[in-house]
Write a structure and sequence with these properties.
The longest helix has 24 residues. The chain folds into three domains: about 210 residues, P-loop containing nucleotide triphosphate hydrolases (Rossmann fold), CATH 3.40.50; about 80 residues, Orthogonal Bundle (Helicase, Ruva Protein, domain 3), CATH 1.10.8; about 70 residues, Arc Repressor Mutant, subunit A (Orthogonal Bundle), CATH 1.10.10. Helices cover about 50% and strands about 10% of the residues. The protein has about 400 residues and is α/β, with parallel strands linked by helices. A hairpin with a 2-residue loop joins strand 9 and strand 10. The strands form three sheets. Strands 3-4-5-2-6 form a five-stranded parallel β-sheet, sandwiched between helices. A three-stranded antiparallel β-sheet has the order 8-10-9. Strands 1-7 form a two-stranded antiparallel sheet. The mean pLDDT is about 90.
């Protein structure tokens, strides 16, 4: 038997942190490789939207797809959407990064500067019209802003012109531009509409620019509410928990590289406690490694380590989200957990919630809407609601009553 060294612990629970083994995502990576190849050959292709609960690895996969685009020498940029924040500034920074990646290969520096001038004009429109000069934000672009291109103030017009020019710059060097948007459900209505319209126009023109978005399960409904054709505009890929084979591989492969192993019973226990969710696989895997006295890691090691992992998740994964809710919203969440204990997948009919609370459904709308905006719940289907965080209901039911 080999003693376990916590310094060599290979497991990596963390928000967006790539695990040591990206298990169960080969299909998505292969499909994106086809998208890149088709776009380079000027074949029609749709942009991509990844959806799923928190903790399933959407951000990790988004980063892996960006790496795939970089390997093909595309220009890439990434941003995270935030509620009540305009898309102009973060999008400008993302496309600036893409331009910098393409610039060394471009034989005509003036073409790069022309694009940067348009990008600067687009970015400067984020400043309020009445802002004083000293208060006006300036992007870090060292060329004069263009005039009459991407600077109308109409987001739909400006974004289309900006994307068109970005695609043309990439086409000059036989590549493309890939823009990655995390937490895409948090884009404003105006920005979502403009993004859909721009992607629609570019797909018709065959421009080499693709958008890859990631967001919560209700993201498709956010997009379709903005533009009805968004259902055909994007290719939607649901990112779910790992199946048993992939979950086992996520544990076995990193351990093997450190000359360690898991017993079959330990793998059974890990799958039972993690549910196959990648974040939980890493969290419980890390705790089990640290508590195991020697290799192989056993089911008893998993059992001993689980409470420590539970305590860490209670603070960092569940508790931090719960603390953001108001008292009324917390009552709504706790009731969801109670009612959802006996429903498959913990999707809860809103009528059952109202009955349990002895309230009219309309009186619960403010709490429901607030929790959706905070990304804690989503409308699973008409008339029902579900948690965006796996095992959130189980965690709430384990808490003492407030």
């Amino acid at each position: 038997m080999r003693e376990m060294d916590p310094i060599r612990n290979p497991y990596a629970p963390g928000a967006g942190q790539r695990p040591p083994e990206l298990a169960g995502r080969d299909r998505e990576l292969d499909q994106f490789g086809v998208v890149l190849e088709r776009v380079e050959r000027r074949r029609p292709e749709r942009s991509l939207v990844l959806t799923g609960l928190r903790g399933v690895g959407k951000t990790v996969l988004l980063n892996a797809l960006r790496s795939a685009a970089l390997d093909r020498r595309w220009g890439t940029g990434k941003l995270e959407a935030r509620p009540e924040v305009s898309l102009r500034r973060p999008l400008s920074a993302a496309l600036h990064a893409a331009a910098r990646e393409l610039a060394p290969r471009h034989r005509a520096p003036e073409r790069v500067e022309e694009f940067l001038a348009v990008l600067k004009a687009f970015a400067l429109r984020s400043n309020p019209a009445d802002a004083k000069i000293r208060d006006r934000w300036q992007p870090g672009i060292d060329v004069p802003a263009a005039v009459g291109r991407a600077d109308s103030g109409d987001m739909e017009i400006d974004l289309l012109e900006l994307f068109t020019d970005a695609g043309a710059l990439a086409a000059d060097v036989g590549a493309g531009v890939a823009l990655f948007i995390d937490e895409m459900q948090d884009l404003s209505t105006v920005d979502v509409s403009a993004l859909c319209a721009a992607c629609h126009e570019l797909s018709q023109n065959g421009a080499p620019l693709v958008v890859v978005g990631a967001g919560l399960p209700h993201l498709p409904s956010v997009l379709s509410a903005s533009k009805s054709y968004s259902e055909r505009l994007f290719r939607y890929v649901r990112i779910d928990r790992l199946d048993r084979t992939a979950a086992d591989h996520a544990l076995i492969a990193p351990a093997k590289r450190e000359d360690a192993s898991w017993t079959d019973e330990a793998l059974d226990a890990m799958h039972e406690i993690s549910g196959g969710y990648p974040y939980f696989v890493q969290a419980y895997g890390k705790a089990a490694w640290d508590h195991a006295p020697a290799s192989p890691i056993t089911a008893e090691d998993v059992s001993v380590a689980a409470p420590e992992a539970d305590a860490e998740l209670a603070v960092g994964f569940f508790g931090s989200r719960y603390e953001r809710a108001t008292p009324a919203e917390r009552e709504y969440l706790r009731t969801m957990a109670t009612v959802g204990e006996h429903t498959a997948g913990e999707a809860v009919p809103t009528a059952d919630l109202a009955t349990s609370l002895g309230r009219k459904p309309s009186s619960l709308s403010p709490a429901r809407d607030g929790l959706i905006k905070k990304g804690l719940i989503y409308s699973a289907e008409r008339g029902s609601i579900a948690f965006t965080v796996p095992h959130f209901g189980r965690w709430l039911r384990s808490r003492p009553s407030e």
